[in-house]
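TL;DR need structure tokens for one chain.
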Amino acid sequence: MPAGIAVSLEDSTLRPNTTGSTMADIGATIGGYKIRSLLQTGQTSQVFEVVEPTSNRHFAMKILLPEFSSSKAHRGPLFHEAEIGSKLRHANVINIVRVSRSLETPHFVMEYFSAGSIRKRLQSKDPKDKEFLKDHARKIFKQAGTGLAYMNSSNYVHCDVKPDNILVNALGETKIIDFAISKRVQSGFLARLMRKRDKPEGTASYMSPEQIKCELLDARSDVYSFGCAMYEVVTFRPPFRGNSVSDLFRKHLSEKASPPSVYNPDVTDEFGAIVVKMLAKNPADRHKNLLEAMMDLRKIKSVFKSRQDPEEDNHGM
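>> reply
TL;DR here they are.
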């Protein structure tokens, strides 16, 4: 991986725990919350289901692993994510309710949403998961796109939109998670003059051209990344594949995406046209924001040729 790239080709912030090691015992109390079960383990943190004893309400707690609890390099992103998430209040964005800057157990508490990520269903060997994504694709796109549109309207760019960071429950209800590298929108001559040429951050398969080039980002960067995620949901592959991060970046910067129907003939041309527009190399050629993209999605009859989308998914965007 080239120096300065923050993540790999396909990076999931949280992964199922396979080591058996945890930083907290089930039944222990941290910050006034009782640990109930381990949900996910990442490279530097874990997420637990917890219960608030006074109300018996269930929440989720993201906490740094012990070896990183005193590291500024790891505490910073955790609190950055918590700071942004605590400012966002939307039905399709995970709600962060409390932050602890404890030296021993730095963590934040968020709403508990009993759901797995889209990535989990994409990787599943169970044919029912593929059918689930087909049945609920439009609803998922509508809700995730609406949540991201709200985040953008709140002056933030998510910067890491991907199937891993979109949770979907059994009803197709959707929430956006993980604001660890999200950024406030900056614009104008002064912003361009004062900005630092940071190293690229994100997940290579979903990064916009301007994100790769470390340019100032706005809502259109999330439009591109969400377009990549939508493409993968309907084709079970991202729009670009490469043998290395550099190869992927080259394709994001210069290679036009094939219509989704090339990989899944069941995808309608109307839907494919929306996604291809979202994946335009020049931000000016994309939808100007996700609300505009969702309005285009509302106009089409269906995502797949083989089925008519439920009536309730065609309205209210």
